[in-house]
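Office hours follow-up: a student asked to see two folded examples consecutively, so here they are.
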Amino acid sequence: MQRRNHRQTSEQPEPHSHSHSHSHSVFSPSHSHGTDSAERIMAAFRGAGDRGSQITLVGLFANIGESYFRGLTAIKGAAGYLTHSAALIADAGHSASDLVGDLVTLACWRISRRPPTNAFPYGFAKFETLGTTTVSIFLIAGAAGLGLHSYHLLLHSLVDTSQSLPTGPLQEALTNITSIAPALHTHGHAHSHSHGVDPNALWFAALGILSKEWLYRITKSVAQQENSSVLLANAYHHRSDSYGSMVAFCAILGNWWWPALPLDPIGGLLVSLIILQNGASLLFGAWGDITDAGIPPSTRNAINDALTPLLASSHSSESSPSLLGLRHIRGRRAGSLIFVDLTAEVPKSLSVDAAIALEEQMTQTLKAARKEVGELRVRFHVVDQ
C-alpha cells in the first residue's frame, strides 16, 4: 500500500536563523525597561498564532527600528563625521545596514506569514528568502563602500607617514605603495586628513559596545527561555555587532595613543570585513534556499530522532498505529520553514484509517519537536513484519 498525502497549514513557526530575521533595538538603560521589552517579546512569541500578537510583534519591531535609527546610528554617524573617525563611520554604516535589514526583513516576514492561497499553494515562505537575499546584497555593497573609503584614508595616512620618515628602504617602500594615492584623492573625501581623530569618538564607540552587548544578553535570555534557535542566532548576530564596535573603539584609542600610526582607517577596514562576512554568510544561506538545497545530515538525524519514539510506541501497543521503520528522509528550506518528506514502513494489515491516524500522529510529533517544520509528506511502504 502506498499513499502520498500533501497537507497545507497556515500555522507558521518562528523564523529560522537562516533567514537572518533581525530584531535590533536600543533599549533604555533602565533594567526595568529591558525586562519589559523581553516580556513583550516572549508574550508575542507565545501567542504568535493570533492576530493581536502578530500586530504586537510588528509594532514592537517597527518602534524599535525607528528609535534605533534616530538614536544610535545617527549618533555614531554624526560623531564619526565630526571626530574624523573612519572606524566610527564604518561602525555607523554597519548599524545603518542593520536598520535597512530590519525594514526589509519585517516586510518580507509579514508576507511570509500569510496562509497558503490558490495562487501560492505552498505558502509565502520564500518571500523571507527574498528578503534575506536583499539584505545580504545591501550588506555586501555597504561593506565594499565602507572598505574603499577606509582604504583611501589609509593610503593618504601612509603618504604622510612616508614623508616624515628618513630616506631609506622603508620610506621607499611606502612611497611605492602610496604612489596611487594622488589619483585616488581626486575622488574627494569628506574629511581633511590633517586633522587627527578626536578622542571623544571613544564615548560613542563605547555606547555601541554596551548597547549591543546588553541586547545580546537579553535576546539570548529570551531565546533560552523559549528554546528558540532563531532568537539565539539573532543574539549572536548582536554579539557580532558588538565586536564591530569594539574594533572601532580599539582603533580610535590606538590612534589617540599613537597618532603617527594609521590605526583608525585600519579599524574601518576591519569593521568592513565583519560586515562583508555577515553579508556573504546570509547570501550563501539564501542561495541554498533558492536552489532547493537539502537540509544538512544533522537536521535529518534530528527528524529521525524526533519520530523514533513512535516506533517504540507502535510495537508496545496494539491499539496504536504501526510504524515499523523510517527511510529516505529529505527536506528543503523555504525561508524559515522546512518541508519534509519521508517513507514510512508499515505492515500489510494497516488499514487506510490507521494510516491517516499514523500520518497525523507523525506530523504532530515532528512539529512539536521541530517548530520550523511547515509540512510533512509521508509515503507509506508496505513491508513484512
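And the second, which I mentioned at the end of office hours:
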Amino acid sequence: MRFSNALFAGILVGTARATLMSRAVTLPTYVQLLQQPATEEIVTLQIALRLRNIDRLEYMLRSVSDPASPDYGKYFDHDDANTIFNPSSDSRAAVLQWLKESNVTKIADFGSYINFATTIEHADKLLQSSFQYFLVDGTPKLRTREYYVPDDLAEHIDLVSPTTFFGRTRARAHHAPPSRDLLAYIQDSNTPALNCTPVTPSCLQKLYNYGGYLVDLNSTSRVGFGSFLNQSARQEDLSLYQRAYHLPETNFSVVLINGGEDHQDPLGDIKEANLDLQLISAVAQGLPITEFITGGRPPFVPNLDVPDTLHNTNEPYLEYYQYLLNMSDPDLPQVITNSYGEDEQTVPLEYATRVCNLIGIMGLRGVTVIESSGDTGVGAPCQSNDGKATPQFTPQFPATCPYILSVGGTQSYAPEVAWDDSSGGFSNYFAQPWYQTDGVSTYLSSVISEETRLYYTPFANFSGRAFPDISAHSHWPFYSIFSGGRTSLGAGTSASAPVVAGIIALLNDARLQKGDPPLGFANPWLYGPGRAALTDVTAGQARGCTGANPQTGRLYANSSVIPWATWNGTGGWDPVTGWGLPNFWAMMGVLNGGSVAAGRG
C-alpha cells in the first residue's frame, strides 16, 4: 500500500517537534546490517503506555515485603494492581488519537499497551526512524537504530518495540555428554552417603537440608518457569527422571505465550527447559509446576497476516511479564524462575526499566521472581557500547533488576566454593535498593581492600544494584538429568535458579498450610533476618574480562582486557555468591520466629 506525498507531509508536520525516545549509538559485534526492507512491507509495533504511580512502586513493595513493616505479606490482588498502575485514560486517548489521525487503521488496544501495524514507509515517517534488516547472531531482525515520538506524547509513552533492542537472549545452561557409568550410578544414588558426582536429587536434599519435609498433597503452592528460544520441556524426560530417582511422578502444565510452541521433539531445543523442570521437580516434591513458553511473534494485531520473515524474532521479556501480570490470582504461581539473560548494556534502558517495573508489580502480588545471575563471571567483553569503548565490567540483565531474586553459582561440594564463571557485580542501570544498604556497604568498606576498591572503581558502578543475592550449586560436578530419552549432564546458573525456586516453593507450602502468606518478594527478608539461615561461601572466585568468552574460549573482536578482574567469595555478602546457600530447615526456623536451629529437620 502506498501513501500520498500529501499524507507524508502531514505526518512530518505532526512530528517536527519530536522527542528522541531511544538510540543505539553503536551496534554490538554480533549485529550486522543485512538489507533494506521493501517500503510496502508490513511492520507491527507495540506502544507501551506510561504506567501510573511508578514513583510509588518501591515504597509499596517495601511495605509488603519488609518483615519489619506492619503491612508485611498484605499483597495486592490483580484488580488492585491494575487500578494503581494501569496507564491513565488520557494517555490511551492521546496515543490512539495520534495513530488514527496519522491514518493508521490496524490498531489493537490492550489497556497498558497498544499494538499497531503499518507499512515500513509509514512507520519510518511516523517515528522518524529507519527500519532495516539486521543479522543478529544469524537471525534476521527488523530494527531501527533510533526513533522519536511527538513532544506532546512523550509523557504518555514508555517505549515502542521492537525498535532499538538487538536482543541476544541466551540460556544459561551448559551440557556435557553423560559418563559411561551414569546409569549404574543412578541405581545406587539413593544411598545415605553424600556422593555428588553427578548431582542427583538425593544429593540436593542433603546439600540444602530439606529432607523430611512432606508437601501438602492439596497445596496451593505453585511454581512456574519461563522457556524462551523455542525451548520446550518434555513430559517423557520428566517421567524418566522421576522414576530413576524415586520422585513423586507428576505431570506439569504448559502455557503458550506470544507464539510459543510446545514441540516435545526429542531432537529439538529441550535441554535448558528439561534442566529447569527436572531440578524444580527434584526439590518441590510433587508441587504443581507450570512451564510458560514464550515465543517471539510480532505484537498481535487482529486480522493481520504477518510475513513469515518476521515470525519469532522479538525479545520475550515484555510479552512474558505482561502475560503473567494479566493472570488471575488463583492461576499465578507464587514462584517464577527464569534462566535467560544478556549483557545489561545491550538492553535499551527504557526497555529494561519497563520490564523491571513489571517484575516489581509481580512482587506486590506476592510472587517471588527468580533469575539466574549469568555465566560470564565479572564480565565479557568488558567494553562499553556507547561509542567510547570504555573498559568496564559487564553486569547481566534481568539479574540486575532490584525486584528480582538473583541467584549465582557455586561448584564442588563439602564445601561448595564460588564458581569461576558465575556472573555478579553492580548494575549500571539500577540504583542500589534500600534492602542492600547494610550488606553491600559492609562489603565495600570492610571486606575488600581499599586498594582493590580504588582499582575497580573505573570499571564498576559501586552505587548500583549489587547482584547476586544468594547462590546454589551450578557447576562441577554437573547435574544428572534426562534429555531426549537419554541420560545427560547439565550445569550453569540455569541450574542454581530452579533449585532455589524449588526451595522457596517448599517454604511457601509450609506457610500456606499455616494460613500465612507466601514469601513474595523475598530479598528484604534474605538481607534481613533470613541471612542467618544461609550458608556463607567464603572460598573461590569469579573471573572475567580476559578478552575471551569464558565458556567457549573464543576471542572477542572488540573487547577490553582488565587485569586481575575477579570477585572473591568472602564472609558476608559478596558479588559472586551473594549471602550464600539456602538451608531449608534453618530458613523455616527463622520464618517461624525462632532460631536457625529451631527449624532444622
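Two things to take away from it. The chain has two domains: 5-51+86-161, 202-214+238-599. The mean pLDDT is 90.
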